[in-house]
Amino acid sequence: MEGGRNRLHTLISIIIPTLNEANGVRKVINEIPREELRDAGYDVEVIVVDGGSTDGTDKVVKELGAHVVYELKKGYGRAYKTGFSIAKGDIIVTLDGDASYSPKVIPQLLKIMRDFDLDFITTRRISSPGAMSLINKVGNLILTLVSKILFRINLEDSQSGMWMFRREVLRDIMPWDDGMAFSEEIKIKAFLCRKKVYECPIPYYRRVGKVKLKKLRDGIRNLLYLFILYIRLRRGILC
In angstroms, rounded to a whole number, what is the distance separating the alpha carbons of residues 9 and 23? Predict the structure, then answer.
């Protein structure tokens, strides 16, 4: 922690979008290293943005002491926008509700952010066996390559869903998209709006529960959206 704030606790908001992730979100919340974070000078609020689950996801979240907010408008990005709007933390962390990203890496990411005075950390997924299908790997490679070519940014995993950033930068990098392209857009804007960005490798695990991603449809939409962003950049309206 910085300067005169060494004795104060900084609040971290962990945002988790869910839709029928009762088993996965239980694992995610239980793995948050609260004591380690508290010892390092951080308090934690957990906000789960639920899209109308029918498997008791919200009940699990409440039992574990986290806050549930409901967002019935469809969209991955829409869920995050709702979570960001009520988050009180100085630092915001995102996680999926399927346990594919482990919150155990949060202390490590916080140390990197603090030591290098970063604004935004995105993650590069190191996949465990069976965690990512071949079509996902190929799609990610294509989308990442197009992102690098169009925007000239140093990024190796444009579709990663775990990020950490300082709250004050959100006004500059908030994506326009309400869907899956939200993930690539927030990273691109962080780079192009000249924030201090670092991409950190982390483990990526097989998801808990049913896959909901429409691989071909979402992949094509994300690809098309990159060109929409590029056009907006050319018009000078990105940030």
Answer: 31
Cα→Cα distances 125→74, 140, 201, 205, 233, Å = 26, 11, 6, 9, 27
> What is the three-state SS of the chain?
CCHHHCCCCEEEEEEEEECCCHHHHHHHHHCCCHHHHHHCCEEEEEEEEECCCCCCHHHHHHHCCCEEEECCCCCHHHHHHHHHHHCCCCEEEECCCCCCCCHHHHHHHHHHHHHCCCCEEEEEEEECCCCCCHHHHHHHHHHHHHHHHHHCCCCCCCCCCCEEEEHHHHHHHCCCCCCCCHHHHHHHHHHHCCCCEEEEEEEECCCCCCCCCCHHHHHHHHHHHHHHHHHHHHCCCCC
Task: Say how far apart CA 239 and CA 233 lie, in whole Å.
Answer: 8
Q: How many CA atoms lie within 13 A of 18 on its CB side?
A: 38
For the chain, give every domain's residue range.
3-234
Confidence of residue 213 (pLDDT cuts 50, 70, 90): low
What does CATH list as the number for 3-234? 3.90.550.10
Read off the pLDDT band of 116 (50, 70, 90).
Answer: very high
Structure confidence at residue 209 (pLDDT): 80
Alpha carbon 128 to chain centroid, angstroms? 19
Residue 102: CB partners within 8 Å, gap ≥ 6? 31, 202, 203, 205
Q: What's the pLDDT score for residue 215?
A: 73
Q: Identify the sign of the CA torsion 138, 142, 144, 148.
A: positive
